[in-house]
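Repro case for the chain-ordering regression, as requested:
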Amino acid sequence: MWQLLDKTLQSRFILGTALYPSLEIMLQAIAAAKADLITVSLKRSMPGGKDNRFWQKILASGCHILPNTAGCRRVDEAVNMAAMAREIFETDWIKLEVIGDDYTLQPDTYALVTAAEILINKGFKVLPYCTDDLIIAQRLVELGCKVLMPWAAPIGSGKGLINPYALKLLRSRLPQIQLIIDAGIGLPSEAAAAMEMGFDGVLLNSAVALAGDPTMMAEGFKASIEAGRLAYMAQPMPKRDLASPSTALIETPFWQQQQNNKAMI
Amino acid sequence: MKVNLNDRDITLPEQKFNLRQFLAQQQITGKCFAVAVNGQFVPRSQYDQFDINGGAKIDIVMPMQGG
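-- result from build under test --
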């Protein structure tokens, strides 16, 4: 069980709904992931067309919805899109994205902070997609963000945790804030690594949707996120530079003889 | 009068329209959409009071896949 803001979730695996070969495969992946929070977006479209089918399938999944402001590059765009999302999805949760670069899809951190402040004042629960910059993270927390979603690597890159030092720093300096790795994860081992660091959850999309078998990959991520969380909670052993035998050497067979041989050298 | 609906120019009869009337005229019904006019979100509760003027840029948005 995971208490995230005002919702109790069964899973720390948040799954995106984009890029799947079909809606049916998307639903199979969501089921295999046992994700109960999924991300959606908005686009210009007319009611009554095929886009209705996506929405009907999402409603039928029973998952909680986390709308995003994907595609927004300005504060006013993100604020308006968040307002439209709140009306359609009937949630005040918003994954806030304000993009500053078309190639890296890196957040525009100045616009992100400004938009977060406006939306928090309008009563939104803002989950900002941010970089691993500690100072920006602290600014967002000061504004009232209880959850941060730092990237592991650029969206859709599958590069994994490209700056684990910065992510560990965020974890250690913001112990009271829910941290969810968002973007750039490619393999279950990378998701596990993030959870082992103490991150509270993982959000990913491409790593599952673009896999050869999205359903199987979703299952793999589910296992790895659970394993990483268990490892973190179980307090892993410290790393050592030198060996420390797990089998006691005293009174092992030939032990005395080895000591005598060393004395003769 | 001409307005732009989802990046497509359309011509409306020369009469006063509020947003609700415009949506009905375009046969846009249901609940799973939201509207922005000239880049500003218009809440559903304000459709009756919001007048559509010539040259308005109207965006109808719906849920879509997203990550």
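Ordering looks correct now. The longest strand of chain A covers residues 37-44.
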